[in-house]
Every structure is written in structure tokens, then in C-alpha cells.
Amino acid sequence: xxxxxxxxxxxxxxxxxxxxxxxxxxxxxxxxxxxxxxxxxxxxxxxxxxxxxxxxxxxxxxxxxxxxxxxxxxxxxxxxxxxxxxxxxxxxxxxxxxxxxxxxxxxxxxxxxxxxxxxxxxxxxxxxxxxxxxxxxxxxxxx
Length: 143
Description:
With 143 residues, this protein is of the alpha+beta class. 37% of the residues lie in helices and 15% in strands. The strands form two sheets. A four-stranded antiparallel β-sheet has the order 1-2-3-4, with helices on one face. Strands 5-6 form a two-stranded antiparallel sheet. The longest helix has 15 residues, at 72-86. It is globular and about 40 Å long.
């Protein structure tokens, strides 16, 4: 049986997800995602435009078949949103009450891209979130 081939890159609205680097790219700026954050964002992109429930994310990303009654999914989503805000993206991930999280990839995503600014705030915001500034090297992708 032949295994499915995953694409190296996957477009999620204005974010280009790179499977080799396990990171997201917006206008030549890396989001500097941790491995689990990348998996969450990749999963939301694969399922878009349908919302993905917390239970499904726990099962597919964390490999848990039960609800550990923690806020780990909400924390991951919050961190991804913060990293997207650092590059000027807002509102790309929506919380749908009682249904889960939705990655906006259509016209709403393009609206987020049109609001991207080329101000110098990226370096300082990325540094505050990740403890370092600038793009990580290919050898520093472990998280």
C-alpha cells in the first residue's frame, strides 16, 4: 500500500506553511512556530473552511483519545494568534462557540493580508514572544 505524499508547502490564506521547516511564512517573515503550534495550524489549514473541534485537535495533534480537562488547545491557539499579530495578521483564526476553531482562508484571509504593515515592529514583537529576534536558521527548528 502506497503512503500518501504530503506537500512540502501548503497555503493557508496569507500564511505559507512549510513542512520542511515546520514553520509559517508571511511576506518573507517566519512565524517561529513551535512544533505543536505548527501541527495545530497545519491541521486547521487542512480542514478549512470547516471548524475543527477541541476534541479533534486533541486526538489528531496531541494523540489523546480523552479530554485531559486542560486548556492546552486554547493556549496553542492563543500563541499562534500572538505570532500572527506580530507580523500584522489579525482574525485569521476564529473561535466558533460549541464547534471549535476555524482558519479563515478565503476573502476574509485576504482582508487580513491587506492590513499587513511594513513597520519595524516585527523584530521587537517576535523577540518578545520567542525570546529571540529574526529568522531562525534551518538547524534551529526544534522548538
